[in-house]
Amino acid sequence: MPSRPDTDDYLSLFLNDTPLLDVRAPVEFQKGSFPTAVNAPLMNDEERHQVGICYKEQGQNAAIELGHELVSGSAKSARIDAWKQFAQNHPEGYLFCFRGGLRSRLTQQWIRDNGLDYPLVKGGYKALRRFLIDQLEELIATADFRIVSGRTGTGKTRVLNQLPNPVDLEGLANHRGSSFGRNVTPQPTQIDFENRLAVAMLKAHHRVGGPIYLEDESRLVGRCALPHSLRERMAAAPLLVLEQPIEERIRIIREDYVVNMSADYAARDGKVAGWEQFEEYLLSALDRIRKRLGGERHQTLRKLMQEALQRQASTGDVTGHDGWIRSLLENYYDPMYDYQLEQKAGRILVRGGPETIIDWAS
C-alpha cells in the first residue's frame, strides 16, 4: 500500500464517502460518529476508564504506560489485525481518534510496525464534528429551500425522492415523523442525525446544486430534533403541496404502516413474535394520540383496529384496516393539516398530484 499523507480535507472525506476507522472507545462511538465510520477501538470502555483515572491522578506519562500494559499480548494483536483488515479492505480510508492525538498516532504506529502505512485525520473526531456543525449552519443560512407539503398519506417522501435535489429528513432520522412513524430498526442518536444531515446537505450543495427540497416536518422527527435555524428557514420557504384522492391515501398508509411494517417485524423477530410486536406497534401508536383524539373516538378507532388485526391474522386480508385509517384521516389528520395550510397559503408555488409536482420541479 503506497504511503499517503494525513489529511485535514474534511469536505473531500464527506463528499466522497471515504471509509473512516474510528479508534475511539465503543462508548464514544455510540454517542455519535460519521456515516462511513467503523469502530475498531484502541481501548475498550473499561481500559479507557482506567487510563483516564490514571491520567487525572498521575499525569500523561503514567497513563500512556498503563495503556501499553492494558493493551498488550493477544489483545493488542487482535486489534492490530482488525485495523490491518480495515486498511486492506479500504486503501482509500483514514483513521481517527477524538483529537487526532495519542490514540490515532499510536494506532498508526502499530499498523506501520506491522507493515502498512495508513493515514489519519488531523484533528480527529472533534475537528470533523466542528466542520460539519459550521458547514450545516452556513448552508442552512444560504441555501434555497423548497418544502414538499401535503395531507397525511399523500406519499410525500416518495415524491420528494424523485425531485432534482432532495434531502430526506425522515430517511436520515429513520422515522416517518408521526405517532405511527417508527421503524423496526432504531433511530440514530441526535449527534449521528445531525452529522448525517450535514453530510446530506453538503452533497446537495456541492454535488447537485440548485434548490434543496425537504419534506414538511415538525421540530421532531421521532426523537431526532431538527436544528432550530433549519426549522425557521423551513417555516418561511415556498411550498409544493401534494394532493391525492382519499382512496389512494388509504392505500399508501395501508401499504406503509400495515403491509410493510408487519413484514418487517416478521423478518426481524419471526412469524409469531413478529406479529405480537406488530400488534403492539400499531395499537400503542394509536394510544399515544388518545388525548388529542378524545376518549370516545380513541375507543372507537381502537376497536376497529383490533378487528382489522384479527381479520389480518386469520385470513391475511389487510383491507379491514381501511376503516380506522379513513376515520383517522378525515376526522383527525385532515382538519389539523388544513388549518395549518391556511396559515401558509401565501407560500404555495404549486399544488397537484405527484406528476404535477415532479414536472414542476424538473
Protein architecture, described:
This protein has 362 residues and is α/β, with parallel strands linked by helices. It folds into 2 domains: 10-130, Rhodanese-like domain (Oxidized Rhodanese, domain 1, 3-Layer(aba) Sandwich), CATH 3.40.250.10; 144-362, no CATH class. It contains 17 helices and 9 strands. The protein has helices at residues 10-15, 26-31, 45-58, 60-70, 73-89, 102-113, 124-142, 156-160, 169-173, 190-208, 228-236, 246-269, 271-288, 290-293, 295-315, 322-342, 354-361, and strands at residues 20-22, 37-39, 94-96, 145-150, 212-215, 220-221, 224-225, 239-242, 348-352. The strands form 3 sheets. The protein has a 4-stranded parallel beta sheet with strand order 5-4-8-9. A 3-stranded parallel beta sheet has the order 2-1-3, covered by helices on one side. A two-stranded antiparallel ribbon has the order 6-7. Strand 1 (20-22), helix 2 (26-31) and strand 2 form a beta-alpha-beta unit. The protein is globular, with a radius of gyration of 25 Å. The mean pLDDT is 94.
Topology of this protein?
Elements: H1 10-15, E1 20-22, H2 26-31, E2 37-39, H3 45-58, H4 60-70, H5 73-89, E3 94-96, H6 102-113, H7 124-142, E4 145-150, H8 156-160, H9 169-173, H10 190-208, E5 212-215, E6 220-221, E7 224-225, H11 228-236, E8 239-242, H12 246-269, H13 271-288, H14 290-293, H15 295-315, H16 322-342, E9 348-352, H17 354-361
Parallel strand pairs: 1-2, 1-3, 4-5, 4-8, 8-9
Antiparallel strand pairs: 6-7
